[in-house]
Amino acid sequence: MAWEVFSFIGTAAFAISGALIAMEEKYDIFGVYILGMVTAFGGGAVRNVLLGLPSSVLWSQTFLFIVASILITFIFFFSKTIINHWNRWGTYFDAIGLSAFAIQGAMLAVNMNMSLYAVMVAAVLTGAGGGVIRDLLAGRRPLVFKRDIYAVWAAGAGFLVGIGLYSHDWALYALLVVVATLRILSYHYHWELPISNS
């Protein structure tokens, strides 16, 4: 059950995030759908390739494609009301998507008996990959390359799942809240990783 929940939350949050950014950039309806879908499914697709999973895994997610399509359609037709609140809510949707997909990616790698390092990489790719593709297609610098902490939270989620948190659903849901909250706090309070002085 936890797998389906995290897949649904991540897909919904990133579909909304991608569609809102497309609307901000004045994309037409086709562009809005493309950016929303790429954001929702791009990270998982990259992860699947690196983990050696067949492409049929992506295309078998019919329900999630329907969910993403409905949400993107809603965003497109009600964008005038929603877009004004993007600066307030966009970060929250992105943080929820990052957290849910990081945990989902880590769960998949654990199920495949991958090493702890592979679990963490799967978490980062799934959690941050869709957002990176979204930002590049929208002509923006990806959040993962900005100074405020982003992908590190996904790696942390992967680490915790990899060392055994996976066996308790309640712990995974708590981790979702913690990781999303940390991402939001790092954005609002400008927490940064060290940078080179050279």
What does this structure look like?
The mean pLDDT is 89. The protein is built from 9 helices and no strands. It has one domain (2-188). The chain has 198 residues and is mainly alpha-helical. Helix 1 (2-24) packs antiparallel against helix 6 (86-111), helix 6 (86-111) runs antiparallel to helix 9 and helix 8 runs antiparallel to helix 9 (169-188).
Task: Name the average pLDDT.
Answer: 89
Helix share, percent: over 70%
Tell me the total number of β-strands: 0
Radius of gyration: 16 Å
The end-to-end span amounts to 49 Å
Question: Could you give a quick summary of the protein structure above?
Answer:
By secondary structure, the protein is mainly alpha-helical. It contains nine helices and no strands. It has one domain.
Topology:
Blueprint: H1 2-24, H2 29-51, H3 56-59, H4 62-77, H5 79-82, H6 86-111, H7 116-137, H8 151-162, H9 169-188
